[in-house]
Design a protein that fits this description.
globular; Glutaredoxin; seven-stranded mixed β-sheet; Thioredoxin-like_sf
Length: about 190
C-alpha cells in the first residue's frame, strides 16, 4: 500500500491518506469510500424506539451539501470533551459564513451515549452528532485505531474533513489520538 501523504497545516503535520490505499482521500467520494455504511443520529432511547432504530445513509448526510465532519475516539474522553467539540461549537458562525450546511461529529459510540454527551456539552444546536456503533464507517475510511491500552477497544483516529457534495476537499488526521493540532475548526476554516 502507498504510504500516507503529509502536508503542513498551520505548522503541524496533517496526514492525508493516499488515494492508492483504496480508502478515502482528498478528491474521492466519501460515500463510495464507505459503501453500504449508514450512521445513527444521536437520540434518546425513546426516539430510537419511535423511529424503529433508523439509520441515516451517507448519501443523505453528504450529497447536495457542504459538510464539515470531524471524528474522535469517543464521547466523554479528555481532548474530545475539553477541546475538539468546543472548537467547532465556538466557530459555528464562521463555518456557516463560509457556506457550510452541516457540522457533524462522529464517534464509535452508540447514538444514545452521543446524545447524552452532546446535551452535556450543550452542542446539539450547533453540531449534529452521529454514532458509528460498530466502527464500520471509520474502518471503511481506514481511520480505525485500537485503543485497548486505554480500555476503549477499537475506535476512531482524531480527524476532520471538509466535504462538498460528497467529494472530500480536505482531510486531516492527527498523528496520535491525544493530539489536537490539525483537526480543529480553526484548521478547517483555513481550508474552506
Amino acid at each position: 500500500m502507498a504510504s500516507a501523504l503529509a502536508r503542513r497545516a498551520r505548522g503541524s503535520a496533517a496526514v492525508l491518506w493516499g488515494a492508492a490505499r483504496g480508502f478515502a482521500s482528498v478528491g474521492s467520494d466519501i460515500v463510495s469510500a464507505a459503501p453500504g455504511v449508514s450512521l445513527q443520529k444521536a437520540r434518546s432511547w425513546d426516539e430510537g424506539v419511535a423511529t424503529k432504530f433508523s439509520t441515516t445513509s451517507l448519501k443523505d448526510i453528504f450529497y447536495g451539501k457542504k459538510v464539515v465532519i470531524f471524528g474522535l475516539p469517543g464521547a466523554y474522553t479528555g481532548v474530545c470533551s475539553q477541546a475538539h467539540v468546543s472548537s467547532y461549537k465556538n466557530n459555528i458562525d464562521k463555518l456557516r459564513a463560509k457556506g457550510v450546511d452541516s457540522v457533524i461529529c462522529v464517534a464509535v459510540n452508540d447514538p444514545y451515549v452521543l446524545n447524552g454527551w452532546a446535551e452535556k456539552l450543550e452542542a446539539k444546536d450547533a453540531i449534529e452528532f452521529y454514532g458509528d456503533f460498530d466502527g464500520s464507517f471509520h474502518k471503511s475510511l481506514d481511520l480505525e485505531i485500537d485503543l485497548s491500552a486505554a480500555l476503549l477497544g477499537r475506535r476512531s483516529h482524531r480527524w476532520s474533513a471538509f466535504v462538498d457534495n460528497g467529494k472530500i476537499k480536505s482531510f486531516n488526521v492527527e498523528e496520535a489520538p491525544s493530539d489536537f493540532k490539525v483537526s480543529s475548526a480553526e484548521v478547517i476554516l483555513d481550508q474552506i
